[in-house]
Amino acid sequence: MKVVSSVISIHSSDTAGVCSSLYELGGLTVVHDASGCNSTYATHDEPRWYDRGSRTCISGLTETDMILGNDERFIDSVVDGAKEFPGCRFIAVCGSPMPMMVGTDFDALGAEIEKRTHIDVLALHTNGIKSYLDGVNQALCAFAEKFCCENLPKNPRKVNILGATPLDFSINGQVESIREFLTENGFEINSCWSMGSSFEELTRAGEAGVNLLISSSAKKLALYFEERFGIPYVAGVPIGKVFGKKCVNALKAAAESGSSSLLCLSERRVGTQAAVIGETLWSSSLCCALQLERGIDAHVLNPLEKEFAFIKEGELDVIGENAVAEAFAKVSAVYADPLYKPIVPEGTVFVPVPHEAFSGRCFRRDMRSLCGQNFEKGI
Amino acid sequence: MLKLAFYGKGGIGKSTTVSNIALAFAEKGMKVVQIGCDPKADSTSLLLRGGKVTPVLELIRKGGVFQLSDISAVGDKGVICVESGGPAPGVGCAGRGIIAALETLEKMGAFKEWQPDVVLYDVLGDVVCGGFSMPMRNGCADWVYILTSGENMAIHAAANIAMAVGNFGRRGYAKLGGFILNKRNVKNELAKVEELASDFDSSITGVLEWSSLVQDSEERKECLLSAFPESPEADSYRRLAEAVLENNCRK
């Protein structure tokens, strides 16, 4: 029972990651799952649900469909859904635990849907068990592979922001403040994956001279762009004035040299005073800001999949509540989502940094942008 | 790389036939991988002379990191042997187990590492659920071969499998390569299986006569091609392997 969590929350699932990353791109996204699961997504994982339209659906999977392998009903539903959606740019289909258990072949279903609708299909291999990082990585890479244009003229001042979803940055101006910060420092935003950019803007990602990776949810996308278009990336959220400036310099250097930089790791040491837990690229960047501007030596705890993590040697993967509590007991301060607070030992300083993918809408109004000089007032 | 999946009713002689075909390919200098897709994990036991390879799912169950060398063993004539394994009888989901095992091989880059010329999937029994169709999916086998005798139950199972292959055709899955008649000396055996093949616009790729040498070699825990390489029965397996290769070129 080592990995059981009886007090703390869990992170949003891979299906939420898919829906969130494709939300603004004009497609039809269908999760093959029982009806009811959509309310978890709409209520807790998608702050845009009530303000901004999107075609994000659940297939309404039934027990009989699963037992009988009734794939045709799913295909028919998606095809009908696409017909009701004029101008549908693409269809994304992905799975939940039950399709995973019976081995539903989404590649094959996607091919059939594509044949019947003549609309591009992204077949994604989610199972509802992995975290949102996996879903976002899959969806953005699939989108880029299918739609990004080749042979575009490169502009070294243009930057793509990779890894912007409400699951990490909510809708309270954090992404906008990163955009403004980059613009103020002489960059032109080429595209933002995937908040506030259109389908067409994303297809022209190849024009950028450099990518700013702001979440491990787009780690695979950054590597993909590096390989396909030769665009280097800088991994770091520009938190605080000092680390923000370092991000700007690293972006300029990367655009010039063509070499990527794991800035959020290289600009800090592993400290023992405090622990930061959450999505690791953001947490790593916060550690940099804490060391550079406050003199606080902190380290990162990774509660998510190891394959996406941005952590340094000596930093821990903490899977399950016991491991997290043990790690908290060793430090004098914890920077974490408020839902971690009940397992922080008495006497340990707790600094709340809400994370939508962990606590949903609960603490949205308390979230602050920490970009650039906002750090001083924000935390 | 040629990838073939072998299906047929339980007990029809799939593992024996597939192992002997594997050796026939290896004799031609081809690098062969045989993957047993059965919780019993006994597809490759003759190639390993009664030895065992640790099934993929056994290592998945234990957790932790493992390498390709932990889930494979080299059998007779260099054939690389892998077993998917599965849950204990009566629990879990054997079909899902096959999916998990094959996905694990893909994630570990098994075929990139081994660079085989031929991959043989020896699949348990009938296509009773999604998991058992995994070896015929896009990216796994190119061709499905169905073993049958002239016994009614074997023909019934073979027809079901052929129907599944046909249904999956539009999904880009493996195509039906043909039927393999493993004789049980039933009355009108050849005619019955020819009729079956014709019903599915297919043909009989090879005929294996009933022979006690097959049992004799199994008692010696060897494939017939290893135990009695000069026998006419061994030549039957070699001809079958040749016919499969010709089929691949022709189709």
Question: Describe it for me?
Answer:
The complex is a heterodimer of chains A (379) and B (251). By secondary structure, chain A is an alpha/beta fold. Helix content of chain A is 41%, strand content 16%. Chain A has 17 helices and 13 strands. In chain A, helix 2 (37-45) links the parallel strand 1 (28-32) and strand 2. The longest helix of chain A is centred in the middle third of the chain and has 17 residues, at 241-257. Chain A is globular. Chain B contains ten helices and eight strands. Chain B has an eight-stranded mixed β-sheet with strand order 3-4-2-5-1-6-7-8, with helices on both faces. The longest helix of chain B is centred in the last third of the chain and has 19 residues, at 232-250. The mean pLDDT of chain B is 93. At the A-B interface, helix 6 of A face helix 3 and helix 5 of B.
Unreliable residue runs of chain A: none
- Strand content of the residues of chain B, in percent? 15-25%
How many domain modules of chain B? 1
β-strand amount of chain A:
15-25%
Biggest interface, chains and residue tallies: A-B, 10 and 16 residues
* Overall residue-averaged pLDDT value of chain A: 94
CATH class descriptor of chain B: Alpha Beta
Helix content of chain A: 40-55%
Order of helices and strands of chain A: HEHEHHEHHEHEHHEHEHEHHEHEEHEEHH
- CATH architecture assignment name of the largest domain in chain A: 3-Layer(aba) Sandwich
- CATH hierarchy, class of the largest domain in chain A: Alpha Beta
Largest sheet of chain A: 5 strands, parallel
Q: Write down the CATH topology of chain B.
A: Rossmann fold
CATH superfamily of the largest domain in chain A: Nitrogenase molybdenum iron protein domain
Note the topology.
The complex is a heterodimer of chains A (379) and B (251).
Chain A: H1 14-22, E1 28-32, H2 37-45, E2 55-58, H3 63-68, H4 71-83, E3 91-95, H5 97-102, H6 106-117, E4 121-124, H7 132-147, E5 155-162, H8 166-169, H9 174-184, E6 188-193, H10 199-203, E7 208-213, H11 219-229, E8 233-235, H12 241-257, H13 263-266, E9 274-277, H14 280-294, E10 298-302, E11 316-317, H15 321-328, E12 333-336, E13 349-352, H16 356-359, H17 374-378
Parallel strand pairs in A: 1-2, 1-3, 3-4, 5-6, 5-7, 7-8, 9-10, 9-12, 10-11, 12-13
Chain B: E1 2-8, H1 14-27, E2 32-37, H2 56-62, E3 73-74, E4 80-83, H3 94-107, H4 110-114, E5 118-123, H5 130-133, E6 143-148, H6 152-167, E7 175-182, H7 189-199, E8 204-208, H8 212-219, H9 224-227, H10 232-250
Parallel strand pairs in B: 1-5, 1-6, 2-4, 2-5, 6-7, 7-8
Antiparallel strand pairs in B: 3-4
Helix pairs in contact in B: 1-10
